[in-house]
Structures
1.
Amino acid sequence: MPDTATTAELPKVLSPGRLFIDNEWADAAGGKTFEVVNPARAEILTEVAEGDQADVDRAVQAARRAFESDEWRRMTPRKRARILLEIARIMEERKDEFARVETLQNGKPFFESGIDVDMTIETFEYYAGWTTKVEGGTVPLSVPHQFGYTLREPVGVVGAIVPWNFPLNLASWKVAPALAVGCTVVLKPASETPLTALLLGEIAAEAGLPAGVLNVVPGEGRTAGEALVAHPDVDKIAFTGSTEVGRRIARTAAETVKRVTLELGGKSPNIVFADADLPFAAKGAINGIFYGKGEVCAAGSRLLVEQPAHDALVSQVADGAGKLKIGDPFEKGVRIGAVVSEKQMQSVLGYIEKGRSEGAKVVAGGGRAEHAGPGYFVQPTVFDEVTPGMTIAREEIFGPVLATLTFGDVDEAIALANDSPYGLAAAVWTRDIKKAHYVAQRLQAGTVWINTYNLYDAAMPFGGYKASGYGRDLGRVALDGYTQTKSVWVDLRM
C-alpha cells in the first residue's frame, strides 16, 4: 500500500497555484486566493489564485492576440498535430503525477484517476490526427460560369468551462478539438478541482504551444465563469456541468450571440430485462452507479428491472454494493473514495433521507461512511420500491445512490426510461439482440450501451437529449462546434 498522500506530494508549481495566462504564471489582479481541499481528509491541500472579471479579460485578450497572430494562424496543421502529440507524450511521462493530483483534489480512487489520464492522453492523440483532415469542398452550382467552394475555419476564442468530477479528462474534451482546428482557449476549471488544469497549461507550453493559445483561469462560476460567458470577445462557450447553470449560460451567451455547446445533467436509466445474464447485469449496474462515487453525469442512477428478475437482481446488486471497499483513495482495493466536498456530501445525504421519507426502501448503505476516515465518504446506497414520482427517481443526485424501479414489458420499460427531463445516457441488458436494438432506437438518450455501461472512446460522440444539453463532445462531430463554414464564389467568365 502506498504511503498516504500529503500536501507535500503536490508539485511545487501548485503550492500555491496561480493563474496561467500567456504561457506565464500570474497572480490574480485582485490578489484573492481560495482553498483547495483534499476531500478524503477534509484538509486544505493548497491555495490557488482566484480569477475574476479582470483576469478573465486579460486571458481573453491573450487568446485573441494569439488567435490573430501569424505564429498560430499560419501554423501548419501538421505542426499543430505534433504539438498535440507532444502534450500527450509529456502527460504519459508524468502520468503518475497527474493521477495523484487528480485524486488529491477530487477524492476518487487512484486507479480511476489513472484511467482518466489515459483517456486524456488518448483524446489529444485522437485530435492530433484530425488537424490535417478538416476540409472544405467544392459545390456544383446551378449558376453558369461560377465556381463554388467551402472553407472550414476556426471559430475563434473558445471559453471552456468544466466541472469537478473529471477535471482533466473533460478539459481535454474541449481543449483538444479546439486546438486541433486552430482555435485558442481560455479554460475555467471548477474551483474545487483546478490543479490538473493548471498542470495541463504548463505542459502545453512545454510542448510548444504559443503564448496565449491556452490560458487557465481558476475562479468561482459566479465571477470568472460568468465573465467568460459574457465576454464580447469570446466566440464560443463549451460547457459541462449542471442543467441549471447550463440554462443560465445559454441566456447570457445569447446577449453576444456566441456559439454554445452544453453537456449537462442526467438521470440515466439502466434497463435490465428478465432474459439478461443477471450476474453480469448486476456487475454492470454496480459499475454504472458507483464508478466515480456516482459523481458521473451519465451514471446509471435509475435501475429499471423487469418484474420476474427483480428479486434476484436487486439482491445481487445490494450484496455487491455492500462489498465495495470505502476509504483512502490511495489504498489498494478501495473502490469508493470521498465525494468532492462537504457540501456535496450533505446534498447526497439529504437525498438519501428524502428517499426514506417518501417511502423507498434502503437495501444497501444509506448513510455516511464514518469508518472510512475523516473525509466526505458516503456509503454506496441502493433503494428498492421506488416509484416514478419520487424525488430520488427524478432529480440528479450526483452521488453513490441507486433508485430501483420495476416494469412489466418492453413498452413500459421504454416509457419509464423516457419519463425524465434528462436524456444523456441509458443502457439495455438482454440476450435478445433484436429487442436490444428496438429499445435503443426508442430511448431518448445521446448514448445507449447494450450489455455494458460506462464505456467511452475519443472517437465516439457524447452528449445529450432534452435537458441534458445540445452539441457533442468527442468524435469527428465535435469539430463542428469549433469551426465555421465559409462559402466562396468565383466568377470564371472570360
2.
Amino acid sequence: MRLCASLLLACTFLSAEVHNLSLRQAATRALAQNPDVLMARLDEQKAALQIRIARDPFIPKVYAGSGLAYSYGFPMSIEGSAPSVVQARAVSSVYNRSKTYALAQSKEQARGMGFVTQTRGEDAVLRTIELWLDAEHAARSAEAAAAQVEAARKLEVIARNRVEGGAELPIEVRKAVLETAKAAQRAQSFQADRELLEATLANVLGYEPGDRVRPVPGERALPEVPQNEAAARAEAWKQSKELRKLESDLMATELQTRSARATRLPTLDLVAQYGLFARFNNYDEYFNRFQRNNAQLGVSITVPLFLGAAAQAQATQAALQTARLRTEIQAARNRIALGVDEDFLLLRRAQTALEVSRLDLDVARESLSVLLKRHEMGEGSLADVEAARRLESEKWIAWLGAQHQIERARFALLHRTGALLAAIQ
C-alpha cells in the first residue's frame, strides 16, 4: 500500500505542469477560464432562458388528443368537452398585463445578471494580477535572499579565519553561523511563498491540480490612474457594475409591483378548438341534428372580481423591496467613494515608501562602493565589505517590496474606477 501511494504521489508530481505566462496572458485567461466567471456565465444563461419561460403564455400552443368514449343514455362531457374521436385546442394570451410585466421583469433580471458576470470577470482579473505580482515579487526576493545566503557564508568563513588567527573571539563564529541560518531561513520562506502563490494562481486560472503558473517578467510601465479623488469618484460611480446591478434590481422590483397590481385587470385569451365526433354516442337520439366535424374560434375574457389579500401583499412586499434597494444604492455609492479615498491613501503611502526605500538603497550602494575602493587600496577589511554587500541586498529587497506595493495599489484603484480591463489590454 505504501508503494502504491508513493507511486501515485510521484505520478501526480510528474503530471504537473509549469505554465509560463505574462501578466496580460494571465489576465486574459482569467476572463476565459476562472471558475467564478464560468459559473456567472451559466447563471446569465439561465436568466436568459427565464425570458423564454415568461414569454410562453403569449406564444400560441396547440394540444391534440382524443376523448373517445361510449355513451349510454345522454352524451355527457369529458373534462368539459363532448366525447370525440379526435380533438384539438389552441390557446394564446392576447392581453394579460400581469404576465406582460412579469416578462419585462425577466428581461431586466437577465440584464442585471450581465452586470454580475462583468463584476466576476473584473474581480477575477484583479485577483489574478495581485497573485501574479505577488508571485513575481516572491521570485525576485528569493533570488536576492539567495545572494544574501552566499554573502553570509563568506562572512562565516572570514570569521572562522579570524578566530583561528586569534584576531576575534570564538563567539564571532557563532554569530556568523546564526546570520547564515537567518539568511537561509529567509530565502526558504520566500521560495515557499513563491511556490504557494504560483499554485494558487494556477487554481484561479482554472488549471489542473498540481500545476503552477510562473510569471514571465518583462518591462512594463506603471498603469495610469486618475489625477485626484474627485475624478476617481465620478468615474467609479459611472463604471460601477455593482451600482448598475442594484439599479437593474430596482427596475425589476418595480415591474414586480406593477405585475402584482395588474392581477386585478381583465385578461383576454384567444381560443380555438376542433372536435371529430363519433356516431355511437347517442347524439342523434337526444339532439335534432348531428354533425361529425365541429370547430370553434373565440376569445376567453376573465374579469377578476375578488382576489383575496395575496395580490395586495405581494405588491406591498415588492414596494418594501424597492425602498430597501434605494437604500442599498445610496450605501453602495458611499462605500465606493470611501473605497476610492482609501485606495488613494494607500497609493500615496506606497509612493512615499518607494521614495524612502530608493534613498536608503542609494546610501547603501554608495557605502558599499566606498568600502570596495578602500579595500582595493588596502584599507578596511573584507568582513566590512561583505557586511555592506549584505546590507545593500536587504535594501534592494525592501525597494522591490515598495515597488510591488505601488503596482498593487494602482491596479486596485483602476479596478475601483472600472478601468482595469482597459489598462491590462
3.
Amino acid sequence: MIDSHCHLADETFAGDLEAVVSRAQTAGLERLCTILEAGNATEAAQAERLEHLWPDVRFAIGVHPHQAHEFASDPNRAVTIVREQLRATPGARAVGEIGLDYHYEFSPRDVQHAVFRGQVRLARECGLPVVIHTRDADADTIRILEEEGDGDVRGVVHCFTGGAALADRALALGLYISLAGIITFPKAAELRAVVSRLPIDRLLTETDSPFLAPVPHRGTRNEPAYVVRIIDALAELQGVSARDMAQRTGSNFHALFRP
C-alpha cells in the first residue's frame, strides 16, 4: 500500500512523527509521498526528520494556489524557489501540489494562473509529474494543463471529488486520479458512482493527512496508516479484492513517480 499524498511535514505531526511513521509501517505501507510547501524552512526541517525515520519516503514540492499571492509581483520567483528546492531534495519526485482554487481565492486568479503555468513548465523541464489541486476551477485547470503541458505532462489530480466530465478530461490528458477518505463519507454517493467506472490502472490512493480522515476515523486527525480504509472502499467500488487494489495502485504510483 502507498499513501501518494500526505502532509507529514505539517506542524500537526511534529510532536509524534515517530509514532505516526511506526503506525504507517505496521499497517503495511510500502511508501508515501509527502507534500512540501516550497520555501517553507520549517517543513523542510521536518522533511529531513521524516527521511531519517523512513528513507523510502518521497516528496513533492510546489507553491499551492493559496500561497500564490506571495509571488504576485514576480511569479517567476515561485518557479525559481521550487527549482532550487527540488535540486536540494534527493527524494523529490514531483512538482506539487499546484493548481487553482476558486473556492477560497486566497490568491487572485490571474496570479494563480501565472504561478501554476510556470510550475507546469518547470515540471516538463525537469521531467517530473505534477500533483494537481483543483477546486471550483476545473475548466481553467484542465485548459492550462492542455496549453502548458503540450501533450507531454504527467501527473495526478489529487483528492479527486469531481464529476465524470473532469475525470474524462483528466484521463484524456494521461493523468492519474487519486482518491482520499471522502469516498467513505455517507454523502459521497455521486463521487462513488464516478469512481466505480474509472480504469483501475489510473487510480492512486491517498490520505491527504492530516485532513479528511476516512470513516470510521472521521473527525480526528488523519494519518497515513488510514490509507487502508481508502484501499478497502476503493476495492469494493471497483469489484476487486483489497489485496489486488493495494497491488494495482502501488504499481500505478511507481509508474507515475518512478521512485
